[in-house]
Amino acid sequence: MPLLARLQNTVEETVRLQRQFLEEQGPAVVAAARMLSAVLQAGGRVFIFGNGGSAADAQHLAAEFVNRFQVERPPLAALALTTDTSILTAVANDYDFSEVFSKQIAALGRAGDLAWGISTSGGSPNVIKGLKKAKELGLKTLALCGREGGEMAPLADLAMIVRSRNTPRVQEVHITIGHVLCDLVDFLLYPEKFGEKA
Questions:
Q1: Is residue 175 in some structural domain?
Q2: Whole-prediction pTM value?
Q3: What 8-state DSSP symbol labels residue 194?
Q4: Helix (H, G, I), strand (E, B), or coil: what is residue 118?
Q5: What is the CATH number of the domain that holds 105?
Q6: pLDDT, tens digit, for every residue of 70-111?
Q7: CA distances from 34 to 15, 53, 61, 189 (A)
Q8: Which of 24, 129, 138, 182 could form a disulfide with 69 if both were Cys (CB 3.0 to 4.6 A apart)?
C-alpha cells in the first residue's frame, strides 16, 4: 500500500502542476506556437538545447519536428545542439562547458532562426550563454524553465515557466508542453491535415 500511495502522490503532483501551468501560462504556449510556426514558415531553423533530461527533451522534440508528430507533413527544420559529441567535447576541452551551445549558435544561427533553451532550474550557464548569443545574433528566443525562471526567463522573447523545484515533475510538464507545441505548430502550418482552418 505505501508504494501505491507513493505512485498516487507522484501522479497527482504532476497533474496539479500541469493544471496550474495551463491556467497561468496557456496564452504563453499559444504565443510560442505562433512564434515557432512563423519562423519555420519563413524558412528559419529551430535550435533546441539543454542538459541531462533537458538534452533528451531537446533531441526528442527535434525528432518530432524533423520526422513528424501525428500527421503526415513535410519535415520541419529543427536541430538539437546536444548530439554532436565531437563538437561538445572539443568546445568543453578547449574553452569551457559553458560555451558548448553558444559556439554552435554562433556557427549555425542566423537572424530569422529561433533558439529554444530548456532548463529545469532556469540557471544552466551553457543554456544562458546560448540564449545570450542568440539574442546578439538576432535570433528569436524561447525559454522552457522551472522554479521561477532563473536568469533564463528575462533573456528570452518568451518564457514558459513550470513553477516547481521538483526536477522530475518539472521535466514531466516540460515534455507535455513540448508535445503540445508540436501539435499546435502542425495545426498552424497544416490546418488542412486536421480538416480545419487555423
A1: yes
A2: 0.95
A3: G
A4: strand
A5: 3.40.50.10490
A6: 999 999 999 999 999 999 999 999 999 999 999 999 999 999
A7: 25, 25, 16, 10
A8: 182
Exposure on the CB side of residue 9, measured as CA atoms within 13 A: 6
Residue ranges making up the domain that contains 83? 20-188
Distance in angstroms (rounded) separating the CA atoms of residues 134 and 113? 9
Dihedral angle computed from the Cα positions of residues 123, 135, 80 and 193, in that order, rounded to the nearest 10 degrees: 120
Following DSSP, what letter does each residue of 132-168 receive, concatenated? HHHHHHT-EEEEEEETT-TTHHHHSSEEEEE--S-HH
Question: For residue 195, what pLDDT band results from cuts at 50, 70 and 90?
Answer: confident
Number of domains in the chain: 1
Residue 131: CB partners within 8 Å, gap ≥ 6?
Answer: 115, 117, 141, 143, 152, 155, 156
Q: Which of 47, 60, 31, 123 is nearest to 87 (CA)?
A: 47
The answer to whether residue 9 is domain-embedded is: no
Q: How is residue 56 written as a grid cell?
A: 533528451
